[in-house]
Amino acid sequence: MMNDFVRIEKISKIFTPAKGVAVAALQDIDLTIAQHDLVVLNGPSGSGKTTLLNIIGGLDEPTQGQVSLAGQRLTGMGEKEWSETRRDHIGFVFQAYNLLPVLSARENIEYIMRLQNRTSAECAARSLEVARKLGIEAVLDALPHELSGGQQQRVAVARAVASKPRLILADEPTANLDSKNGNDLMEMMQRLNEDEGVTIIFSSHDPMVINTAKRSIVLHDGRVVEG
Amino acid sequence: MYRFVFKMALNSLMQRRSRSLLVVLMISTSLWGLLFMEGIYDGMTEQLIANAIRSGSGDVVLYGKGYRREQDIKRAIANHAEILQVMAGDPRVASYSTRIMQDGLLATARGSRPARIIGVHPEMEKRHARLDEYMEQGEFDFGGQGKKAIIGARLAEKLNLKIGSKIVISAQNSVDELTSIVLRVGGMIRANNMGFDETAVLVSFARANDMLFMQGAVSQISILLHDQSDAHGVQESLLHQFSTIEAFRWDEIAPVLLQSRQMMAIFNQVTSGLVFCVAGLGIFGVVLVSVLERMREFGIMLAVGTRFRQIGLLIFYESMLLGLTGFALGAALGGSTLLYLQSHGLDLSLMSEGLNAFGLDSMVYAVIRWNYFSMALGAVLGSIILSTVIPLRILRKAKPIQAISEM
Known about the structure:
The complex is a heterodimer of chains A (227) and B (407).
Chain A: E1 6-18, E2 21-33, E3 38-42, H1 49-56, E4 64-69, E5 72-73, H2 79-89, E6 90-93, H3 105-115, H4 120-134, H5 149-162, E7 167-171, H6 179-195, E8 199-203, H7 207-212, E9 215-220, E10 223-226
Parallel strand pairs in A: 3-8, 3-9, 6-7, 7-8
Antiparallel strand pairs in A: 1-2, 1-4, 4-5, 9-10
Helix pairs in contact in A: 3-4, 3-5, 4-5, 5-6
Chain B: H1 2-15, H2 17-57, E1 60-64, H3 80-88, E2 93-107, E3 112-120, H4 122-128, E4 135-138, E5 148-152, H5 153-158, E6 166-172, E7 178-189, H6 194-199, E8 200-204, H7 205-212, E9 220-225, H8 231-241, E10 245-249, H9 250-253, H10 255-292, H11 295-303, H12 308-344, E11 346-347, H13 352-357, E12 363-364, H14 370-397, H15 400-405
Parallel strand pairs in B: 3-8, 5-7
Antiparallel strand pairs in B: 1-9, 1-10, 2-3, 2-6, 2-9, 4-7, 5-8, 6-7, 11-12
Helix pairs in contact in B: 1-12, 2-10, 2-12, 2-14, 10-14, 12-14
């Protein structure tokens, strides 16, 4: 169903940092996110935004509950299925950029497409197209450590969108950027959402991100309190 | 995909040049040392065997029937001319020499020692065992009338003999009479074959023939072959053709030498194992640290959809590239060092006394065998593969987010 593109049912996550100590990061979360939506998970530090994002993307496992993407149940899938789902359907943008340090900007952008066994010509054309949209075509041959924070985050966004995923998960994407770069990034994400129809879920407590989003879901102490 | 992962592995190694170089140097220097050690130790063993063969039995040695059981001079080879004719037509035979041998006594004005009297043809010995090359003092020549003798260097030292010293050699002849002749020392010979150097008294064949009343018969025919592996075939064919002789291979005459070779092979294997354990631990440590500190990178790769086995392949490629580069460099260094030492030798004259006591020359020539390289390659690859197993196990258990944020 179009309106249930991402479906989160009764998700709880309990961490046990030490024996006998249990911390509930998420408690009984029920959510649905529609396709082409631009959603922000909002809330103070420790509210469970990143944990929820990680569970949606399969980077972490819930203690209970389940997640579905376009009607396909993701929770409980094996390593192979999860890798293929992340590779083919989900793009990630991390707060700390998380580019592969040994690859150039171009190779980072092409990385997921290479995993998908796309041809070199296809990878090159798509990476150039995305780089032009994001204004980073001049730095394609630079290594991550040679780029500024803003440039690295654009490369990270380019990597996430180049393989045309159906869903992008962006964890505090503006947290390490100044206001100008943060603004630019949000404009780009908005354009991608509108032009390419990608569903985007942010986690952030940055007002600029919250104002850009079409929908804001507020979390507090691991529970949805609004949205 | 494989090409892409390989390119990533290459990129990764080039980006981390210092660490890559460190691992390559560790592997190559360990291998260099190992190859040097193996080549020199095997060179020593082969020299020990070669000295014993040249100055003693040859590759195959013939005696009269029953001589080995009871070393009686009467058990001589009378039909040696016929045997020599057969050997002259055998393409496997490189050279041969006929000798008369009898145990006796060497006496001087100051003392006496047991001695092995060996009657030889000097020209034949020069062509055959190149005994002249072992001369320490004097010349490999018995004088016009055969009045000179060449004495084993250790025997000469024990009796304080010098060139020109007068000696008396006595022995029982073939008709059971005790005979003696007076000779002058014409030279000292050191073959680094302990038994030979401590007892040999070389005299001219004619002198020995007269003294021991051999009537032209010989005690021993020493045979050297072009290829030592033909020894068994030559032995069998001579025994088949001549019923009056006994034929032995060098390893039957001196099994202890064969044991030395086998012991050295075991020693080399144990040493290689130890060297590679130590080097392997070093390699293991460096590769382990290098993989562990990249857990975050691998976590990112997992997060964006890389399969675990693709990361395993990446680590495998990187390790193989390091291992094979280290192996190539070490093999090139070790191989060229051994090639140099094979032709020029390693001068260990500072330790010559100790080496000579074990029957070794002070100039050691290295040996090169292909199995040094194949074994080393196996050990390098083994160390490298083992060193990637633990980090991969850690990564396998981790969730991508743990790898990204905690490691």
